[in-house]
Amino acid sequence: MEEYTVLSNGKFNNKHSKYKSIKYTNVTLFVIFYLIELMLQDIDGNSQAVLAVFITFFISRYIIREMFKKNPDFKFKIPKTIGVYIAVFMVKNILINLLLLSV
User: Fold this and answer.
1) Which of 6, 35, 58, 77 pairs with 19 at a CA distance of 20 to 30 A?
2) What is the 3-state secondary structure (H, E, C) of the chain?
C-alpha cells in the first residue's frame, strides 16, 4: 500500500503520512469522551452506555475523512478534528434529547 495515496483499492488509506495527526487526535478524543461518559454515568447512577461514544467517533471520523479526501493539505487539521468531534457530539445529544422528550 502506497503511503501517498488517499484511497487504496477503494478503501481509505489511514497510513497516509498527512493523516497521522488526525488519526491520533481521533483516538485521543475517543478516549477522553469515553472517560467523560464513564464519569457522567457514574454520577447519574446509570449503567455504562458506551454506544454513544462509538457513534460520535464513527460519525466524526467519517466527516474528517471526507474532508481529507477532498484536500489532504488542508490547514488546522487538529483544531478542525476537535471541532467536528464536538459539533457531532452536540448535535447527537440534542437529537437524542429531542427524541426522548417527544416520547
Assistant:
1) 35
2) CCCCCCEECCEECCCCHHHHHHHHHHHHHHHHHHHHHHHHHHHHCCCCCCHHHHHHHHHHHHHHHHHHHHCCCCCCHHHHHHHHHHHHHHHHHHHHHHHHHHC
